[in-house]
Amino acid sequence: MIHSFFANESDSGTGHDSAAAVMMRTDEESNFLRIVKLVQYIFFVHVCLNPRGGMPLLQSVMLLAVVLPLLCLSLVTSSSATPDHHPLRGRWRELTNPPVDQPTKRVSPAEEQRYRLPRYIEPIHYVLNLETQVHTGNRTYSGQVDIHLDIRQPTRTIYVHSRGLSITWNEFVKTYYGVSYNETLIFTEDTERQFLIFVTRETLIPGQPHLLRIGFVGQMRTNAEGFYLSSYLDETGNRKYLAATQFQAISARAAFPCLDEPLMKATFALRIKHHPSLKAIANTPSYASAGDEDGYVIDYFETTPRMSVYLLAFMVSDFPYIEEGQQRVYARPSSLNNTKFALEAGLRILDALDEHIGIPYSSYMLKLDQVALPDFEIGSMENWGLCNYREEYLLYQPGVSTYLTETFITTIIAHEYTHQWLGNVVTNEWWSYLWLNEGFATLYEYMAPDLAYPERRYRDLFNVDIVQPVLLSDSSENTRPMTFSRGATFDAILSIFDNVAYSKAGSVLRMFRELIGIDTWREFIRDHIRSREFRSVNPGHLIESMESVTGNGSFLPDGIDMETFVSSWADQAGYPVLEVRRTYAGQLIVSQDRFYNNKIVNDDASIWMIPYTLLEQDAPWDALADWQWLTVRAARIPSATPDDRWLLANVNQSGYYRVNYDERNWQMLIGALLDDHSTIPMASRSQLIDDAFQLARVNRLDMEVALELISYVRAEWEYPPWESANQALSYLGQRLRGSPDYVLYQLWVDTLIGDVFTGLDVAGVPPECDGSLLGKYLQQLISSWACRMEIESCLVDTREALEREVTGIEVVHPDVSSVVYCYGLRTTPGPDAFQYLYSKLQASDYRRERSLLIDALGCTNDPEELDALLLTAIGGSLQVNYTPQERYYVLNSVLVSRDGVDALIRFLAENHPYVASILGPGRLYSLVQSIAARTNTPEEEQMLNDLLERLEPDLPATVTANVRATVSRNLAWPTSREGVLVSYFLQRYRPIPV
């Protein structure tokens, strides 16, 4: 699943029952019935021993004294037996070879175990029957589920997940020696833990067939979760209804009773009854469709492979599709023409993954569908054979969509298609190992498109899109390890879907790939999948596959095994900074400690097994020395690099860590960048900018050194280094706005972008970039900076380009539309341009274009236009049919300028109750915090304080405290060490002639 990006933290409590105690307590109903039978048995024996009634009952009991302890022992053993839990640190090996997966051998916290299923029972196969009247908008549906169970120890208690369902009936079918027996079971519902707890009359014996049938009625949800109701307006304005699913992580239980944990894999046979005006699709193809007596249709679907229940998916809609080969793309009728790019990209990416992995997708599934849903909150989902996407993440409209849309669609398809193997064929056995799913998918977001479209250089986006952003967030004190659990509740699991599970895991796996080489990596992927096919995985299984393909970790340094290496990255929070200090006497001193974004700590206990490469000045890039290792806190090693030549570590940012050097080496690197930056690899140039600036921000490096290094980009024509510089420049611009040094900052930025901007065409595709993907990225970035710094030619070009479109002369090219619309709107006099873009928004049915137009409208600096735009988010004189997400986009869009921030303050002061009720309190809190982040002066602080007074009844004290703390830091920044050093640099800066 794409992170939406996703989620936050809430730690689970502790001090609850142990796993064994939970298992004993949850069988207490069964024990009660056993005791009743025991009493009955005593009376039965008494009668048998004393048929004429001459012996007192007490004497009969005494005769049974020897037998009773044995009976009681049998009862306790039967009811309290627990699965084997082996708390082996970091390495899990199966001690037996059962037909289904063993549970994780690592002991879970007691609170988490309370919400987990017992392991003595496993699902084998589901038959799910559903009936819906969704065509009318009716949310009520009914169903029956048959769950074929594997009983793995004697028991009388069966646990099944259920949330918000009404159970109408049940039937239990057990078979002994070929004879089936049916009974209706007594059950209780534990709503807190979302369990149905069924109790059988007799003890269930392992090895015999057992079937639990449950009839139920449910209400389709309205929040794109579980089995949910969705709708759209057709071209005539009529509302059309559809039903779709989103079960990850634990929402299958909200659709039908099931054993809702990823470890509990089974096969699924699905039958859906619906109105004939609609069609049903699911993970597998439909093999039959039959009319019912009431005029409805029943669709029957092929049985799925063995898979986790959260991957089950189905949809009932009137969506048409386009297809080629085994792939289809579904969308609402008016958007079907916008699905062609997704189909073409899906075909190419699946072919690339088939070849790369070496295990064809068709060996598991017969088809692969993609669906563009009108509302899908999480973004996208990898259901096996049926991938779901939010419309704007899948649809591409020629002549309207931009290169950014093309990139996003391509990478998101690659993410979900990678999951078809890594996530679906093999699945994380519990959500604490989510990174084993999402890390691989994040890595292949860029790797698979690069295989499918090598000319686009998607590989060069990975560091700036994935590695560098997560290095920033993962440097917090509050970050978590990759392997981690906050509990088994819905919110606790949802909080694990964060950038650690996605971006950090993808970055660490990329480091593993670079370390063992691409050919060995492909062997590893195949072994990882084949060895656990249709089963689940934990980090121990990844370790086993890496050992298998690398000769038991032969690449590792002496004394370090694979488990130690992998665990140092998966089980520790944060990441290290590798300090490389040259003695200039034939030695290097390398050391490590954890990198924090707010302090330097040299006594942290964490130690990583760090692989690193070294590149010397004038050495060929393809002749890197073998990987070297730092596995202790610090080491002194020999170095043959001449003292007057620079040394570069972690070449191309292959490792997941930062690198710092002694100042002399930094100065030699800066000199090389200023003299001829092409002598340093492009990815390393980007890395140097990012590392230097973040090291300077925590006082590990002089800020002047970092700013001097960034200044080389005035001669840079590659996008990735510029994007790294963009992050630093944006931060400094936000901090300096409103200060006396802001003019100096503008002059500095003008100098940096000047030469590159001169070679660009703001309103067209620059010939120097030849229309390449990275060239388009660079064009938009530089053009945005030029207009933001109020370079006259940029403002004139954008104004004239927008005026040509408004007057019907020439439509702005999609790839430059965001810059042209935004800055052209700011400089075009009169309301015509604003009204034109707003009318275009109203007329558009294409979500990506609507988002772009909302952002553009938020760029206006006219107070009346800003006020009118903000009112549309809650309903004003200007009306538009927004989605809930778009209402929030509108309010966020104005934050691009100080004029917009002021307008948002005015708007919230008057309309905050409506914002909280329509968008939710959380959105209101987020907007206030965004305003605080953009508050730099005492005058702006007073405006915010006035707003806080108006909002005081609606804001929690913690939010208000965080807002005031943010503003205090902003106002204090100019006199902080960082602020003073930046000011000193800007006042002294003199560009070196190029």
UniProtKB/TrEMBL annotation:
Binds 1 zinc ion per subunit. It holds the Pfam family Peptidase_M1. Residues 646-951 form the ERAP1-like C-terminal domain. It comes from the Eukaryota. It is an enzyme of class 3 (hydrolase). GO terms for molecular function: metalloaminopeptidase activity; peptide binding; zinc ion binding. Its main location: membrane. Its cofactor is Zn(2+). It is a lipid-anchor; GPI-anchor; Single-pass type II membrane protein. The active site is at residue 416. It is found in: Cell membrane; Membrane. Keywords: Aminopeptidase, Cell membrane, Glycoprotein, GPI-anchor, Hydrolase, Lipoprotein, Membrane, Metal-binding, Metalloprotease, Protease, Signal, Signal-anchor, Transmembrane, Transmembrane helix, Zinc. One of its GO terms (cellular component) is cytoplasm. Belongs to the peptidase M1 family. This is Aminopeptidase.
